[in-house]
Amino acid sequence: MSIQTVAVVGSGFMGSGIAQVCAQSGFHVCLIDIDEQRFARALKSIRWSVEKLVSKGVVADAVDEVLNRISTARDLGAAAEADLVIEAVFEQIALKKEVFAQLQTLCKTEAILASNTSTIPITQLALATKRPGRVIGIHFFGPVPLMKLVEIIPNPQTDEAVTHAVLDFAYALGKNPILVRQDIPGFLMNRIFGAMACEAIRLVECGAGSIEEIDQGMCDGFNMRVGPLCIADLAGLDISLNAVNVMHSLDPEYTPKAPALLERMVSEGHLGAKTGQGFYIWDENGKRHGAAF
Ligand SMILES: NC(=O)c1ccc[n+]([C@@H]2O[C@H](COP(=O)([O-])OP(=O)(O)OC[C@H]3O[C@@H](n4cnc5c(N)ncnc54)[C@H](O)[C@@H]3O)[C@@H](O)[C@H]2O)c1
């Protein structure tokens, strides 16, 4: 099974990054979004990123050669001829199910239908289609052009050939894929990170440690480049809260409930780096300053 053409549904932060790494690796990719206004921003950020990677010698092709492999469309029907479709719309179960139900009526029968969901079990999306054997998770980490990790999540009905094709595809993108052997909410990395971040937030909440000392301790003691509170700020506290809530609603016994402090910060609009304040103060260039409290 060979993957030649790719469609990416959703041209936001992740979808645009996924389209970029596909195009950089020689795949023709169609970026699909219902919101046409998203394309200009997506293509601008892709061009900026490819220019940087070309200037550093990481990407050998000319910038325009890479950009010319990317087309855009508002209609999901543009995915009809793709060998692989990667869904990267908002992290909402009902929305993703709807997209998968539509894709299975529009795409060729041998197409692989993949989701970039961070937390939702792939089985739930596979069951929205009549071809669960062709449905799989391909969970990229952001920013996609920089992060090596990709989690590959077959659902129990995924054809083995599909899993192999997707692993080969991830290697072709220059990624280091890991196989998730049980289709559980949050997969591997977000379960581990969610538990760590929730505990760090709870320790701040009860006054057991300061924001900066907890993060510094995780760097010095566990060799992390940045601590969990800083990572949560960079991911967006609203995104982090949503991920914790989805995992906890689907697996309350083994995943933590969101800390009250995290809920309060999100309700007050302190969403991390993107709003200038989360656990830290951030400037408009994305530079971190001191702890916010
Ligand atoms: N942000 C991260 O760091 C990160 C990391 C890994 C995985 N993810 C997952 O990737 C997915 C996308 O996240 P994001 O941060 O790129 O979101 P985003 O908000 O930046 O982009 C989502 C895009 O989907 C589009 N969209 C919504 N409904 C659509 C539809 N029916 N058809 C076509 N397009 C539609 C929106 O217009 C938007 O452009 C989510 O499932 C998220 O959990 C995010």
Walkthrough of the structure:
The protein has an eight-stranded mixed β-sheet with strand order 3-2-1-4-5-6-7-8, sandwiched between helices. A two-stranded antiparallel ribbon has the order 9-10. The radius of gyration is 19 Å and the shape is globular. It has helices spanning 13-24, 37-55, 63-67, 93-106, 122-126, 160-172, 189-205, 211-222, 228-235, 237-250, 260-267; strands at 5-9, 28-32, 70-73, 84-87, 112-115, 135-140, 149-154, 176-179, 280-282, 288-291. It folds into two domains: 5-179, NAD(P)-binding Rossmann-like Domain (Rossmann fold, 3-Layer(aba) Sandwich); 189-291, N-(1-d-carboxylethyl)-l-norvaline Dehydrogenase, domain 2, CATH 1.10.1040.50. Strand 5 (112-115), helix 5 and strand 6 form a beta-alpha-beta unit. The chain has eleven helices and ten strands. It has 293 residues and is an alpha/beta fold. The structure holds nicotinamide-adenine-dinucleotide (NAD). The site of nicotinamide-adenine-dinucleotide has 26 residues, from helix 1 and helix 4.
